[in-house]
Design brief:
The complex is a heterodimer of chains A (about 120) and B (about 110). Chain A has about 120 residues and is mainly β. Chain A is about 0% helix and about 50% strand. Chain A has no helices and 11 strands. With about 110 residues, chain B is mostly beta strands. The chains are: A mainly beta (about 120), B mainly beta (about 110).
Chain lengths: ~120, ~110
């Protein structure tokens, strides 16, 4: 069974950093692209970042470009999101997602989400 | 940049057919994916590549895409279909990646 489980969410002050992790199991992690999508409370979905299977195609939403960094460790079946210079508008549930392919196709399997709250 | 337009809400009686639209420029030339999100839960992929269903998704749920509009159709609607539905494509410009519609809340009367 495919599983992706997020961790590392919590409360951070504006301007500080937080690192999300995602542990994957039940599939060949190094064959698939991975993504982060966020959802502010009561709002819609916003794609944050994605990384292909080889880590040579990486993308970011304009809203996080230059502040967030996505990475993966295929040996550890893990995906990460380093979030720096956090802002109040970064408050959201962050979902880790397995793509349907090694490149960006569709968002096949979603984790349950990790809540990030940015507040002083 | 690509913009996807969905109606904020759709209401349907049990047993009837619900149609949720997603509008965008030349959408028929792109692959459209649909996600269902029930209250308090993570989204679930229900249709990919316009009309394909992942395993476990009932045949009552189908998708189509032509011209400037993609449509998610749910036949024989059940109370359990009540959820928010989002369409999604990959952007057409080199610096634009995943784009979501604003979401449609399906209410079963």
């Amino acid at each position: 069974e495919v599983q992706v489980v997020e961790s590392g969410g919590g409360l951070a002050q504006p301007g500080r950093s937080l690192r999300l992790s995602c542990a994957a199991s039940g599939f060949a992690f190094d064959d698939y692209a991975m993504h982060w999508v966020r959802q502010a409370p009561g709002k819609g979905l916003e794609w944050v970042s994605g990384i292909n299977w080889k880590s040579n195609n990486i993308g970011y939403a304009d809203s996080v470009k230059g502040r967030f960094t996505i990475s993966r460790d295929n040996a550890k079946n893990s995906l990460y999101l380093q979030m720096n210079s956090l802002r109040a508008e970064d408050t959201a549930f962050y979902y880790c997602i397995k793509d349907g392919n090694g490149y960006f196709t569709f968002l096949e399997s979603w984790g349950q989400g990790a809540l990030v709250t940015v507040s002083s | 940049s690509d913009v996807l337009t969905q109606p904020p809400s759709v209401s349907v009686a049990p047993g009837k057919t619900a149609r949720i639209t997603c509008g965008g420029s030349n959408l028929g030339g792109k692959s459209v994916h649909w996600y269902q999100q029930k209250p308090g839960q993570a989204p679930v992929l229900v249709v990919y590549d316009d009309s394909d269903r992942p395993s476990g998704i009932p045949e009552r749920i189908s998708g189509s895409n032509s011209g400037n509009t993609a449509t998610l159709t749910i036949s024989r609607v059940e109370a359990g279909d009540e959820a928010d539905y989002y369409c999604q494509v990959w952007g057409s410009s080199s610096d634009q990646f995943a784009v979501f519609g604003g979401g449609t809340q399906l209410t079963v009367l």
